[in-house]
Design goal:
heterodimer, A: 296 residues, alpha+beta, six-stranded mixed beta sheet, 10 strands, globular, B: 361 residues, mainly beta
Chain lengths: 296, 361
């Protein structure tokens, strides 16, 4: 019985081995249909080349889809919007890519495997990228990290949506918090970014708000059994990132001090946030985070 | 064999008669669930006292006599610790590229378990301390029922989905994006009664990234575990604002004499990736031959269709790995991985030769 079972399993393993790799007919170097763009094998200092030769064939084997590590998707539809001017999750004080400054770009530190990184060198478990490739990425960043694949990415992005925020929903950040970052899947229409579409509020306990005399507070109508919330609007400037118009930077008039805050983006109705094709988010988006005292 | 070794074996016999450890093939070989040898009921990380005893007695080719001192992870009445360290030397060859050769510290991890209420309530941390800075992998509170037939877990955790392999680059690990590099935050309910090994987890679904919207990730893992075989199914649904992702898998194991067989097949459909490129199929077949005590030969065959909507792009990977555990807590692994894929992509034709020192306690 044992021999026959082993034999059957071995036969199964052998049969599986007979399953061959694809012959690649009709595909480019990245396994995509011919004509959809592909790598040349030579990496140059522009995002399209880096995408085709590095991000797509190597990085996006893991960094893709809804469950991408650290929320970083590196397929062509998302890579630029989640890299440039977007804080790293592992080291939030650094941008993943800081235009003009490769040494302070966390992605460069990760692919170079510097001792200051958190976690392993990228690509994880694989051979480090050739120095020539790293040099090309560095040069792209020195050049200001321009988005040479903007039209491709915009066309490829499935929907116009919020990709990520810093601080994230239900997270904490140390005071003083000077900026909130929102990354979208596509470029925003800058003319729609204003006080009616981007709102920063501080949530305070109702009792404290009632005792306060100077605050312009508004009680929110809530149907839940929880104590009623009272919010205080925080003046803030909202602008698109200089090098990445798919990233919204919200800067409070004064840095946020310890407390609970809510950011609301109006994505529906007239004048809602939209991409350059006038596609709105479709729904209003909001998230809450807590600012705490900085560690001594 | 020394007196202490005999004592350890007797303890092992009292605990269950056989054993299992970190790799799922050993769980299949012994007919146990993951929680027999791991504090985490879904496997990986800190070993239980049973797992520590096994690592000193059954697993190695020889047991170095340490007198009456045998490691069981205890730091005191309420604290236990453990760790894993993997140091590699590897050579990679790829058509059109210069071969690379390097030594690298792949991973050093430290585990800490606080038995706040012994056998019922624990706080657990899994911290990767090298390479680079410290990185928290798991950190949760786990409550066990009195009969240890169900549990509730809350915190940051690895998600349950099929076989939890040591190789995080296996196709079945990368296709779903569910592996030990992508822990998520949420809650998990487990059911461990009799032959059933089941978990349901509800998590943020961002693998450590920012949370947007109300979407959550749901992971369901269900297995029927017998002494000779096991069969299971897994499902995952990740509802995110940029598009949802679905994954379904079936997996199993069979023990035939000295050979343990593992298999898993899964399909994914990630709608956050444009042009149907998120429709994948991944399979794994693995045979582990326990040649002699402390000597295991692992043969793995993997298949990946990276885009089910597009023909001719399939990839395969073969691995042959010899695992030698000469003494307790020390293992040497050596082998190669042979990739094959479309002719126009050199990265799909890599050849990896490696030798690894794995220390664990």
């Amino acid at each position: 019985m044992r021999i026959s079972l082993n034999g059957c399993c071995a036969a199964l393993l052998a049969a599986a081995a007979a399953g061959c790799a694809g012959n690649g007919d009709g595909l480019n170097q990245n396994g995509q249909p011919i004509g959809s763009g592909g790598g040349s094998g030579v990496v140059t200092a522009d995002l399209q080349s880096i995408q085709d030769n590095v991000f797509t064939p190597i990085c996006s084997k893991c960094h893709i889809g809804a469950s991408a590590p650290e929320g970083l998707q590196l397929d062509s539809a998302h890579s630029y919007n989640l890299l440039v001017d977007v804080p790293s999750v592992e080291q939030p004080s650094l941008f993943r890519v800081k235009p003009g400054d490769p040494d302070d770009s966390y992605m460069v530190r990760k692919i170079e495997g510097l001792s200051s990184i958190v976690g392993g060198q990228m690509p994880l478990g694989e051979t480090p990228l050739p120095q020539a490739t790293i040099d090309a990425i560095r040069q792209w960043i020195i050049n200001g990290a321009p988005n040479s694949q903007a039209s491709t990415a915009a066309a490829a992005a499935a929907v116009f949506a919020v990709l990520g925020t810093t601080p994230a929903n239900a997270s904490t950040a140390a005071a003083p918090l000077r900026r909130i970052v929102v990354a979208f899947t596509q470029e925003l229409d800058a003319t729609l970014v204003n006080d009616s579409t981007v709102l920063v509020e501080r949530i305070v306990p109702a009792a404290r708000a009632a005792a306060s005399t100077g605050a312009r507070a508004t009680a929110l109508a809530r149907t839940s059994e929880a104590a009623p919330e009272v919010t205080q609007r925080i003046p803030a400037a909202a602008l698109l990132a200089e090098h990445n118009p798919a990233v919204l930077l919200i800067t409070p008039a004064t840095p946020l001090q310890p407390g609970v805050y809510r950011i609301s983006l109006r994505g529906s109705g007239g004048g809602a946030l939209a991409n350059l094709a006038a596609d709105t988010l479709g729904v209003d988006v909001s998230w809450v985070f807590t600012v705490t005292e900085a560690a001594p | 064999m020394s007196v202490s070794g005999v004592r350890l074996l007797l303890l092992l016999a009292c605990l269950g008669g056989a054993t299992a450890q970190a790799e799922p093939y050993l769980a299949v070989q012994m007919g146990f669930k993951c929680n027999q040898c791991h504090v985490n009921p879904t496997g990986g990380g800190l070993r239980t006292v049973f797992g520590d005893v096994f690592a000193q007695t059954i697993m190695p080719a020889a047991h170095l006599d340490t007198g009456g001192d045998n490691w069981d992870g205890d730091l005191g009445r309420y604290l236990r610790t453990g760790g894993d360290l993997r140091f590699d030397g590897q050579v990679t060859r790829q058509p059109g590229s210069v071969s690379s050769q390097e030594f690298s510290l792949e991973q050093a991890r430290v585990y800490l378990e606080a038995n706040v209420i012994p056998d019922r309530l624990i706080a657990y941390v899994d911290e990767q301390v090298a390479p680079g800075g410290a990185l928290n992998r798991e950190g949760y509170v786990l409550y066990w029922s009195a009969a240890h037939d169900w549990y509730f877990k809350a915190g940051q955790m690895y998600l349950p989905f099929g076989l939890r392999l040591q190789d995080q680059t296996a196709f079945i690990q990368t296709a779903t994006g569910i592996n030990m590099t992508t822990p998520d935050q949420g809650v998990e309910l487990g059911w461990e009664r009799g032959h059933i090994d089941a978990q349901l987890a509800v998590t943020n679904g961002t693998a450590g990234g920012s949370v947007t919207g109300d979407g959550k990730q749901y992971s369901l893992n269900l297995a029927w575990v017998q002494s000779m075989w096991r069969l299971g199914a897994a499902a995952n649904y990740n509802d995110q604002s940029g598009g949802s992702k679905r994954a379904f898998g079936i997996f199993g194991g069979l023990h035939t004499g000295p050979i343990s067989w593992l298999a898993q097949a899964e399909i994914t459909d990630d709608q956050s990736i444009a042009n149907d490129q998120g429709k994948q199929l991944a399979t794994l077949l693995e045979a582990d031959w326990l040649i002699a005590r402390g000597h295991n030969l692992k043969i793995t065959d993997e298949f990946l269709n990276p885009n089910r909507a597009l023909p001719n792009g399939e990839e395969t990977r073969w691995s042959l790995v010899y695992e030698w555990t000469p003494i307790q807590f020390a293992q040497i692994r050596a082998g190669f991985r042979w990739n094959d894929g479309i002719p126009q992509d050199p990265s799909e034709h890599q050849r990896l030769y490696f030798i690894e020192l794995h220390g664990f306690f």
